[in-house]
Amino acid sequence: MSQTANPGNTEPEFKITSILVPLIAIISGIFMVILDSTAMNVALSRLVVDFQTDLPTIEWTVTGYMLATAAVIPLAGWLSDRFGAKNVFLTSVILFTIASLLCATPNSAEWLIVFRILQGLGGGFVMPVAMAYVFRLSPPNKIGQVMGMLGVPILLAPAIGPVLAGWLVEYHSWHWIFLINIPVGIFSFAFGLWKLPKTERKKVAGFDLPGMILGPIAFAALSYGIAQGAESWTRRKHSSVLL
Questions:
Q1: How many CA atoms lie within 13 A of 242 on its CB side?
Q2: Tally of CB atoms within 10 A around 127
Q3: Rounded-to-integer distance, Cα 107 and Cα 145, Å
Q4: Whole-Å CA distances, 187 to 25, 97, 181, 193
Q5: Does residue 13 contact residue 19 with C-beta atoms inside 8 Å?
Q6: Torsion of CA 49, 51, 55, 57, to 10 degrees
Q7: Which of 39, 165, 168, 226 is most deeply buried (CB count within 10 A of its CB)?
Q8: Could you tell me how far CA 211 lies from the centroid of its own chain?
Q9: HSE of 155 in the Cβ direction (CA atoms, 13 Å)?
């Protein structure tokens, strides 16, 4: 006798195509943020000339972006539970896109640094919220497969960023490093608004104002300290020359 499965115990088979469209919104947002984190390095020498400033000052367009991104990561989980992952993701994409437009407009290095920090604040939420979405959209036995798809932009964006930025700076203008984010951001927001499922809000602990302020500052300070280690963690540089 042939055995038949009990319909009451069967579950519909998971297909990656069922979450493909939401993943497109998530992947495009991640790609945009990571691409911009590496593309800026190529334009620094041109920005020094255009803004008539020095390299240590213009390097804060990279450092400020990195610190802002690191600072908001501890807040991502709390905000996602409090306001919903979809709302936080879409808000961060919009903030990043608007900041990208602002980064293409300044006529001084100081304003570019400010807008880059604003851009980092938006981009910092994208990655952790995207990871949380993957765990909610995928069954436990398929998380590895879906994370593999999500890893594509994480691996490609850092490699593409400097090449694309170099071509834009050489043949067009450094402004296009930021302007190319606008259609990608609009695309990610539209797809996310259309297809990202709403997630239930969870009960969260009360608002800890000192923790919300000190946590990001501590996280950013730690990131800055590690980054400065590439130069020196002491003030005894060039002491042998002075002797």
A1: 4
A2: 20
A3: 46
A4: 7, 11, 10, 10
A5: no
A6: 180
A7: 39
A8: 22
A9: 6
